[in-house]
Every structure is written in structure tokens, then in C-alpha cells.
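Dear colleagues,

For the upcoming journal club I promised to circulate an example of a predicted protein-ligand complex. I picked one with pyridoxal-5'-phosphate because it came up in last month's discussion. The inputs are reproduced below in full, followed by the predicted structure.
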Amino acid sequence: MKVQLTPNPQPLAADLRAAKIAEGGFGKYYTDNMVVAEWSEVDGWTDATLKPYGPITLDPATAVFHYGQEIFEGMKAYAQPDGGISLFRPEANALRFAKSAKRLALPEMPIDFFIDTVKELVKQDRAWVPGNIGESLYIRPFMIATEVGLGVRPSNKAMYLLIATPASAYFTSSKAVTVWISTEYVRAALGGTGEAKCGGNYAASLMAQKQAAAEGCDQVVWLDAKERRYVEEMGGMNLYFVKGTGADATILTPKLTGTLLPGITRDSILKVGEDLGYKVEETMLTIDDWRDGVASGEISEIFACGTAAVVSAVGAAKSAHGMWQTGNGEPGPITAAIRKRLLDIQHGVAEDTHGWNVRVC
Ligand SMILES: *Cc1c(COP(=O)(O)O)cnc(C)c1O
């Protein structure tokens, strides 16, 4: 499969584009083009088309509107010191997209085809990639079930779309987020779709997010569905706990039990943490470990990680059983060091010893 190029003949004027990029924020403006590819059970995948960004038309009885058969990815393109552009671990996104597709009974997209669509869009819309460290072009691949009809069955048609939006700092990186630990709602149970990146997981999480906001918190923290004791994730990000301080510190993250989303940032930090000389652990941690750990001072820092915000510090935690604080509301030194190293690799400032960056242009 190829990507046929029929780009927007009238891309946004440079001064207007610059103003939109400078405005910052996340997901407000989209680039001049998008990519669309279609799949059917009969014909398989057909060539993708890169074309002007714009609305799509679908029959109201299209499957995705009724039964939520949808998956997505989130990845970024980063400006490099020499003016070029790189993607960060695109193959990891391609592999996860295929896994999510399988879980949602959608067609798996060939890895190279997925990466080619991303490369072509970034190349075409390279003028939209912001230049400063911490800024990037956020890329959103997604796939929807497009069979028309209300019968409940795996769709025999699907559409893949790819859009991109310039991103400045997503969460303000300078201040710790406060979290509401939900004991009422769960994000994922074993056998469910927790490991897949699908819209349905998010739809089911919004009520808890609303509750977190009502409690004065920025984000929800999810516990395991069975015992409601083990800490799993924060909103749409993975979590890390720092035990001890300085060179002897251990950074630990909840292990992938089958209900957590296997974050690519999480995986990268396991290696970056080791590179920086910390001990690294994947383990189970309970809500009691968290509370007691910050009370005794053994847990010195907590942070969340994901493609959109990269790394953000977690401060106060609140639940139906009380409230406790980690640190002073400012990101701790290890959180800051890990954030910096990861961003430096992504922007080509630190050496890419793991071969994570893939040059686009
Ligand atoms: C996407 C996502 C993450 C983070 O994954 P990255 O690959 O690091 O962006 C974590 N948790 C959930 C629920 C997610 O959807």
C-alpha cells in the first residue's frame, strides 16, 4: 500500500500559521492536510490518500456511532537542532495500534503502512512543527468502524484517519497536579479493554474525571478493579514513584498486569531512569503504600508520564479516605531530570543511545 499525495493546494498563509502555533494550547488548530485509508473485509486495505484537512461524511447508521468500535494513537514529531524533524519511536505506536485493533475486532494495519502515513503527513505539513524544546507536532492516528447498519457484529469496513495539531506545553510543567483517587469508579478490569487505546475507555472515565474536578483535583487516579487497592494509572497517563533521594533513589512504576495501558513514555523512562543511574522497578503499589510512603518521607517524588504532557509532577492526593501531600507542589529534582533527559533525546539535544528517533526530513 502506498500513500497517494493530493495535498491542499491552498495551505494556510505563513503569518496566520505562525499566529496559530504561537497561540499554544492543545488540539485547537489542525494542519493543512490529513490522511485517510479504507479497509473492507473483501478488498483489505487500499492505498491511503493525503488530502486537505476537512470534515468527513458518514451515514447516521455507521457502526462507530452506536457501538464505539474505535481505536487511536498519540505520537509526536519534534524539531531537531539542524532544522530537520524526527518522530519518537513510531514503530512502538504502530505495534500498539495493531494490538488495539485486534482487541476491538478492527483490521490490523501493516506496521510500515502506518509509519509511512505518519511520515508523509509530517513531511507535507512540516511547517507546522513548532521549533522550541517542549513543543512538538502532536499526531493523532485513529480508526473507526464504518459498516452501515445497527446489527451488533465486528464491522466489515473500517476507515483509518490521521490528523495533526501543533502542541505547546500541555499541562503546565512547572506545577504539580493534584489527584483524586477514585474508589467508586474503575478504568479497566482483567479481560476488558484496558490495554487497548480505545475511545470507549475514555468515555467510561469521564464521570470520574468530573468527580475529581468537583473535589478540586486536576486528575483521577485509578485503582485495580478487583481489590480497589493497587494503584494503576492517572487519567490517560502512567505513574512513577520515587523512593529515596539523590543517586540512591529507586524509581518504580506499577507493573503491566493486563489492565494498564502500556505507555511508550513509561517504557522509555524505565531505560532513561537506568541511564541516569537510578534503580528501576516495575511492581505493585497499594494506596496504603502511597499514603504511608509520603508520610514517612520514603516516597520523595511522584510523577505521571505520557506522550502529550511528557512528564508532570503529582502533588497532593485526595480520596474518600483522606488527603496527603507529596513534596511542596513543585516538581522534584528527579522528576525534572527525567523530563529533561527525555525531551533532550526527543529534540536531538542529548545522544539518542537507544535509537529511538526516526528522521522524517
Ligand atoms: C496513551 C495512554 C497512556 C500513555 O501512553 P504513551 O504511549 O506514553 O503516550 C497512558 N494511559 C492511558 C490510559 C493512555 O491512553
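Two points we might discuss: The chain has nine helices and 19 strands. The first strand starts at residue 3 and ends at 5.

See you all on Thursday,
B. R.
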